[in-house]
Amino acid sequence: MVFLSSLIVGVVQLMKVLGRFNRARAARLTLPHFTCQTPLFMPVGTQGTIKGLTTDQLEEIGCQIILGNTYHLELRPGSQLIDDLGGLHKFMNWKRALLTDSGGFQMVSLLHLADITEEGVTFQSPVDGKPMLLTPEESIHIQNNIGADIIMALDDVVKTTITGPRIEEAMYRTLRWIDRCIAAHKKPDVQNLFGIVQGGLDPVLRDICVKGLVERNLPGYAIGGLAGGEDKDSFWRVVAQCTAGLPEDKPRYVMGVGYPLDIVVCSALGADMYDCVYPTRTARFGTALVPEGVLKLKQNAMATDERPIDPTCPCMVCKNYTRAYLHCLVTKDAMGSQLLSYHNLSFMMRLSRDLHMSILEGRFPEFVRGFLRMQFPKGDVPKWVRNAMVVAGIDISECCTPAKYPRDAMDAPGTDIPELCPPTKCS
């Protein structure tokens, strides 16, 4: 088809893999506004801003891509105004890369305001109550106006906790909608359209969707519909299945994933890109990310603690402020959430760099083992992580207590290991 061949003009060299360890890869992602290193984490700037932080601060900590929300940007200030003022990059004074979602996630988050049909999804505006029809064509038109480096196809999103025919309906509709998105895309030379793999927790449906999207020869692919309440063993199996079926030379983006442990596991399974509100949202509740997990600065024990959040962290917050000072601010003063957001995003950027460099330098297994030892000093690494590392080909036996790590697990082929650790509602 003509529109398929024209889609990839200017984006053939989008991604170059620089290093590997089994499934994991470190790559260079060349986008119109910035050249990125993967694996990478993208902070969520719903309406063109990361709450409490300036774009200079985001550059300072090494942020490569910011995610904007199509639905919310269209509501306020409006994509036409953004386009008239030179696009979102200029509007928000951000010189690096941008990604916009399609608006599809609001089918889940605003389900009580949405009506989904083959034409598209009709939302009742939470601002003025007026109906808003978001079709695949309109989603792409809005994103063309916004001007992000990566734009997402409109997909039919359902929670992974839902079962029954709705999952199959949504997957096939997602495949039908991708063709409408491709046909509507007016700027394929400067904006990279990614398709989104749906299919719930059903391996057959996921496989059909992967194959259907790959046939469209898109610049990149996302794994959608996860991080919505499913058990972790099911989560990693879907990621492993999808990354195995997606092209080796195209970026793979696991949507909505922001826990550091999840990012390390998914990177080991071959994923490249992640986004989530978690680092900034948890900052607003007074929680800091540290190598051991989290530090809750609201706790009374922090009131007299003169140490930085993380003595190993080089960020501005850890260099200049104590836990005691932050304890006085968190949840009480805007400065507290700003400083913690800065630190938490700095933590995520450092994690991204460490993942990239450890793969590039051939020490990825050592990095993973060191990360797990910090997170689980007692050796109680969750079953789902142990299962995933079997498939990733990383021996983490030294990080686990003997009772927690069957040594023959490393011989288990693929993801077919139900007799070892069956899917459970594990942590």
From TrEMBL:
Superkingdom of source: Eukaryota
Domain tRNA-guanine(15) transglycosylase-like: 23-374
A GO cellular component entry from the record: cytosol
GO BP, sorted A to Z: tRNA modification
Broadest EC class assigned to this enzyme: transferase
Major location (coarse): cytoplasm
Segments for region (RNA binding): 256-262, 280-284
InterPro entries: TGT, TGT-like_sf, tRNA_ribo_trans-like
EC nos: 2.4.2.64
Binding annotation for Zn(2+): 313, 315, 318, 343
Record: residues binding substrate: 101-105, 155, 198, 225
Subcellular location: Cytoplasm
Positions annotated as active site in the UniProt record: 101 (proton acceptor), 275 (nucleophile)
Reported function: Catalytic subunit of the queuine tRNA-ribosyltransferase (TGT) that catalyzes the base-exchange of a guanine (G) residue with queuine (Q) at position 34 (anticodon wobble position) in tRNAs with GU(N) anticodons (tRNA-Asp, -Asn, -His and -Tyr), resulting in the hypermodified nucleoside queuosine (7-(((4,5-cis-dihydroxy-2-cyclopenten-1-yl)amino)methyl)-7-deazaguanosine). Catalysis occurs through a double-displacement mechanism. The nucleophile active site attacks the C1' of nucleotide 34 to detach the guanine base from the RNA, forming a covalent enzyme-RNA intermediate.
HAMAP family according to UniProt: Q_tRNA_Tgt (MF_00168)
Protein name: Queuine tRNA-ribosyltransferase catalytic subunit 1
